[in-house]
């Protein structure tokens, strides 16, 4: 029998496409052309966007020229416009985390604009022209789509694909997240949704298999989330409580064993958190 089968062609098992994930992507792509509006508008959006433009175009953290580019009446609404920091810059109260996430898209746009300039296409390489604004806004859309797929992966642990996908689509598009993804993508809300989804995904991964790398990643995600919104420091509560439990329980285990387990959990996690939070100090 073995000899007879040896001559037959072998086939590898094919991986079926996840219909739930496909449904999420299709729903997202159908709504994007309808609602997508890549425009920097309003005080908050200028405050967030000014960080990435100043860092790339001016190689500086002084956002004054970005603020002054927009209509004069908006300047009066900036609380920090007349406040000078010890570095001599005006005070920008809006977090720099969104700029970190927009940076790859903004740099890609900057490179494309410079190449087009070299080819004779008259596009302003100033961070204000359409390619820059479009790229950063598209970046928000990419992160929100990633958040939806992460949430789907989390929900699939407990529910059938159809229920998981339907729930994610409703959560995303029957809430203000739709507005902050497409209509007003230059706020922090869509990016905060990505950070939150990634946090839960990494936390569950640590609970499944608590390796050094996974604990480090969880700490980095909390650090990133804090860059986006400082209130996200509260995300520390659940992991810290879980690690403290390792030290306190069960009491039948020798305290040295518990202390070793506690340190093996705390060290990589603390390294990840500190790597991104310390620069904010």
Mean pLDDT: 90
Count, helices: 13
Oligomer: single chain
* Percent helix range: 55-70%
- How would you classify the helix and strand content by structural class? mainly alpha
Low-confidence stretches: 1-5
Secondary structure: number of strands? 0
The run of helices and strands is HHHHHHHHHHHHH
Radius of gyration: 23 Å
Termini Cα gap: 71 Å
Proportion of β residues? under 5%
What coarse outline follows from CA principal-axis ratios?
Answer: globular
Biggest sheet layout: none
Question: Which key terms come to mind for this protein?
Answer:
single chain, mainly alpha, about 65% helix
Q: Topology of this protein?
A:
Layout lengths: L1 H5 L12 H17 L6 H16 L6 H6 L2 H4 L21 H22 L11 H26 L5 H13 L3 H7 L5 H20 L3 H17 L8 H12 L6 H23 L4
Helix pairs in contact: 2-7, 2-8, 3-6, 6-7, 7-8, 7-10, 10-11, 11-13, 12-13
Give a nutshell description of this structure.
This protein has helices at 2-6, 19-35, 42-57, 64-69, 72-75, 97-118, 130-155, 161-173, 177-183, 189-208, 212-228, 237-248, 255-277. The chain is mainly α and 281 residues long.
Describe the overall structure.
With 281 residues, the chain is an all-alpha fold. Helices cover 67% and strands 0% of the residues. The chain contains 13 helices and no strands. The chain is globular and about 70 Å long. The protein starts with a helix and ends with a helix. Residues 1-5 have low confidence and may be disordered.
């Amino acid at each position: 029998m073995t000899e007879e089968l040896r001559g037959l062609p072998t086939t590898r098992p094919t991986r079926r496409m996840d219909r739930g994930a496909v449904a999420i992507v299709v729903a997202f792509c159908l709504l994007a052309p309808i609602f997508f509006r890549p425009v920097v508008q309003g005080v908050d959006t200028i405050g967030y966007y000014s960080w990435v433009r100043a860092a790339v175009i001016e190689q500086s953290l002084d956002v004054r020229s970005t603020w002054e580019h927009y209509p004069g009446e908006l300047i009066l609404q900036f609380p920090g416009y007349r406040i000078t920091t010890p570095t001599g810059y005006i005070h920008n109260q809006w977090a720099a985390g969104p700029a970190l996430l927009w940076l790859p898209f903004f740099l890609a746009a900057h490179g494309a604009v410079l190449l087009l300039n070299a080819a004779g296409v008259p596009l302003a390489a100033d961070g204000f022209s359409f390619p820059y604004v479009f790229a950063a806004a598209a970046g928000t859309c990419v992160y929100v789509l990633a958040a939806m797929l992460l949430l789907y992966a989390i929900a699939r642990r407990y529910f059938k694909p159809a229920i998981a996908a339907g729930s994610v689509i409703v959560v995303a598009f029957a809430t203000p997240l739709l507005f902050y993804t497409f209509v007003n993508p230059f706020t922090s809300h869509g990016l905060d949704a990505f950070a939150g989804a990634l946090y839960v995904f990494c936390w569950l991964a640590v609970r499944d298999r608590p390796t050094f790398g996974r604990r480090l990643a969880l700490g980095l995600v909390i650090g990133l989330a804090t860059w986006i919104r400082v209130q996200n420091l509260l995300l520390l509560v659940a992991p810290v409580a879980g690690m403290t439990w390792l030290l306190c329980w069960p009491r039948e285990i020798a305290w040295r064993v518990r202390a070793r387990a506690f340190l093996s959990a705390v060290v990589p996690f603390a390294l990840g958190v500190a790597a991104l939070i310390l620069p904010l100090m």
